[in-house]
Write a structure and sequence with these properties.
The chain is of the alpha+beta class. Among the domains are: 140 residues, Domain of unknown function DUF1254 (Immunoglobulin-like, Sandwich), CATH 2.60.40.1610; 125 residues, Domain of unknown function DUF1214, C-terminal domain (Jelly Rolls, Sandwich), CATH 2.60.120.600. It has nine helices and 19 strands. The strands form four sheets. A six-stranded antiparallel sheet has the order 10-11-12-18-14-15. Strands 1-2-8-4-5 form a five-stranded antiparallel sheet, with helices on one face. A four-stranded mixed sheet has the order 7-6-3-9, with no helix packed on it. A hairpin with a 5-residue loop joins β4 and β5. It is globular and about 70 Å long.
């Protein structure tokens, strides 16, 4: 009966232009999924204890200290991280959270499309102990009172825990907190086992591995990934578009079986998709007072697939804006065109200090995204009582080569050679930061 009522759809060949546009859209849509799967395999196939934050599934793996200068792209010197990958096809997992009084923390659970589907932490649940279960969507078991069930939208889930760390002197306290977060299967009590897959590349960074995939292999792999980690219900429209190029969730993709127009346009279309991502990277956030500010559709992206792909390529699995707001300056110095006497200042009026419920910081990087090298190795100013405030309550962060007077050293970021970029991080930002009533001040040149 339904067949007789359904209208017959006309079948026509895709034009080259249609094929190219759908391939571009599909690449942007699938890029985060591909990167997450490559990242997962990269980390879970590292032998236990050989790489901080990596090791078998279903275990927390802790990063115990900040990275060295030059060891990591745009590192965060505010938090120590812990990471765990879960396979919910094996059933639910229990996460126990200790009391975290005195330290802001945030523990985000990401699906394989890079959406933060649950965020546990100081901002959302407070600093009290708690127990949470992460379960598959179709799980029907029961839990004791007081245990909250979080449903994973995809079979695989990434847990990313961050705990406020006030420099190396705080390591011991943070390590105790890290150890207090525990993870276990709901019913199986055996310790996780690890079976290393020798075919997995654990040397080349995941982003570079995805970039190196041929277009045919990219879509073949993405189709395989969708067998376990299905699209969101709200993705129906893009899924319908992809079906026209022979790409369907749960089914293998073979380029030779795709429409002729797709085969002819595939390489060109993927190249253009990557070019659009590169262009969007430069324009994804509005610029105010020389700072890139992005507080919309971060951490959960809806159907903005291009933005989701761009954010994943730059910083995989960022926190939602309600948890953290990252402001990045444009390059403020021209290498080779500065005198040693040049100075800059980031001035906050008393009533214009970064509005946060937790804390804020300012970190200095070079133009490549690595911590700016300087002889004292000072790259971060943290919100703390040691800062030297002006008599009227305002604050100056001094960006200069020469060391200031002793009382101003806590406010000093030594200016290195070459270009620099600043990142201001606001944790648990207040509404005025999120809705645009507050913006970072201009970085001013005060002498030459």
């Amino acid at each position: 009966m339904l067949e007789t009522l359904a209208p017959k759809r006309s079948v026509r060949r895709l034009t080259a232009e249609e094929a190219r546009e759908i391939v571009i859209e599909a690449y942007h849509y699938l890029y985060p999924l591909a990167l997450m799967h490559v990242t997962r395999r990269f980390f879970i196939n590292q032998p236990l204890g050989t790489r901080p934050g990596a090791g078998p599934e279903a275990m927390f793996h802790h990063v115990r200290e900040f990275p060295g200068i030059g060891d990591e792209y745009r590192p965060n010197f505010d938090m120590l991280y812990s990471s765990a990958w879960l396979d919910l096809s094996k059933g639910p997992y229990v996460i126990s959270v200790p009391s975290t009084e005195g330290h802001y923390y945030v523990m985000a659970a990401y699906d394989m499309w890079t959406d933060a589907f649950a965020v546990i932490g100081t901002h959302t649940t407070g600093s009290i102990p708690g127990t949470f279960v992460i379960a598959p969507l179709d799980w029907t078991g029961s839990l004791p009172n007081g245990v909250e069930c979080l449903r994973g939208p995809t079979t695989h889930v990434w847990i990313n825990l961050q705990i406020q760390t006030r420099g190396p002197k705080d390591y011991s306290a943070v390590h105790q907190l890290q150890n207090g977060f525990t993870l276990a299967h709901l019913t199986e009590k055996n310790l996780p086992t690890q079976k290393i897959d020798p075919a997995v590349d654990t040397y080349i960074r995941p982003r570079e591995q995805v970039q190196a995939m041929t277009p045919g292999n990219f879509f073949k792999n993405a189709a395989d990934f969708m067998k376990t980690d299905m699209p969101h219900n709200t993705d129906w429209s893009i899924v319908a578009r992809m079906r026209r190029i022979g790409l369907e969730p749960g089914k293998p993709f073979h380029i030779k079986k795709s429409p002729v127009a797709v085969q002819a346009e595939l390489d060109k279309a993927v190249g253009e998709a990557r070019q659009r991502m590169a262009w969007k990277t430069r324009t994804v956030a509005p610029v105010v007072n020389g700072w890139e500010l992005d507080t919309t559709s971060v951490g959960v992206y809806g159907n903005d697939y291009l933005k989701r792909a761009v954010v994943a390529s730059v910083n995989l699995c960022v926190l939602p804006s309600a948890e953290a707001m990252f402001c990045t300056s444009l390059e403020i110095t021209e290498g080779g065109q500065r005198a040693d006497t040049d100075r800059y200042v980031l001035h906050f009026d008393k009533d214009q200090l970064p509005p946060v419920n937790a804390f804020w910081s300012v970190t200095m990087y070079d133009s490549e995204g690595f911590p700016a090298r300087n002889s004292p190795n000072r790259v971060i100013i943290r919100d703390c009582r040691e800062l030297d405030y002006n008599s009227d309550g305002s604050l100056d962060i001094l960006i200069q080569k020469e060391q200031p007077t002793p009382d101003r050293i806590p406010n000093w970021l030594p200016l290195p050679e070459g270009q620099i970029v600043m990142t201001m991080r606001l944790y648990s930002p207040r509404p005025e930061a999120l809705d645009g009533r507050w913006v970072p001040p201009v970085i001013q040149r005060v002498s030459s």
